[in-house]
Specification:
With about 210 residues, this protein is an all-alpha fold. It has one domain. It is about 75% helix and about 0% strand. The protein has six helices and no strands. It is elongated and about 75 Å long.
Length: about 210
């Protein structure tokens, strides 16, 4: 499932389900869940998240250049140009991240709804994706730690005689971007793991 492909519909209500037998239900369930897992935890989504983070960092760097260049009229004009360019990158990137998070929330709802239809121990093994889950969790956790360290250490070690407030704010902004990007990855990996435990390896469905 690509980032632009439409999401599958939720499973039909019990009273209008038209599967001819349980095997047909399990086949459709496995196909839909496989597409949803790829759309939620695929390698392409991880690359897209890091691309968004890189673009947002670029925009913040332009804003940081504007903040640290306010010394006279000429540099203020140049800084204003950098500020507009930075906002022009950050605003659409932030909107893209918001739309992506909303889509992730919808995919997670569909995973839960389709997963609760039934259990299939054989086909469900392909949906756990432990390696892909670790590929999300480990670098995201490391990025969280780096971002948090920057946000805490930088203001604590800043030298008022050499480090301006704008420079400290700029550095903390970079740390915050790293922390939020890592947090998104950690939450997604944890949510997928929780879904596996509840919907694929839990008790019999109701």
């Amino acid at each position: 499932m690509s980032s632009r492909s439409p999401l599958p519909p939720p499973p039909p209500p019990v009273e209008i389900r038209a599967w001819r037998d349980r095997n047909a239900l399990l086949a459709d369930r496995a196909q839909v869940l496989d597409a949803l897992v790829k759309g939620y935890l695929g390698a392409g989504r991880l690359g897209l998240l890091w691309l968004w983070a890189a673009l947002f960092t670029l925009g913040w760097s332009l804003v940081g250049t504007a903040l640290t260049s306010l010394t006279d009229l000429l540099t203020a004009i140049v800084g204003g140009v950098f500020l507009l360019l930075g906002l022009g990158v950050m605003i659409p990137t932030g909107l893209a991240v918001g739309f992506g998070l909303r889509k992730d929330h919808r995919i997670h709802q569909l995973l839960r709804q389709w997963g609760e239809l039934d259990r299939d121990p054989v086909l469900d093994r392909n949906l756990r994706r432990p390696g892909l889950n670790l590929a999300w969790m480990l670098p995201s956790a490391a990025l969280c730690a780096v971002g948090l360290a920057v946000c805490l250490v930088l203001p604590a070690t800043a030298d008022p005689a050499h480090d301006t407030y704008a420079l400290v704010v700029y550095g903390m902004g970079l740390g915050l971007i790293c922390w939020l990007t890592g947090l998104i990855g950690v939450v997604k990996a944890a949510a997928h793991r929780r879904w596996v435990l509840r919907s694929l390896t839990g008790g019999a469905p109701r």
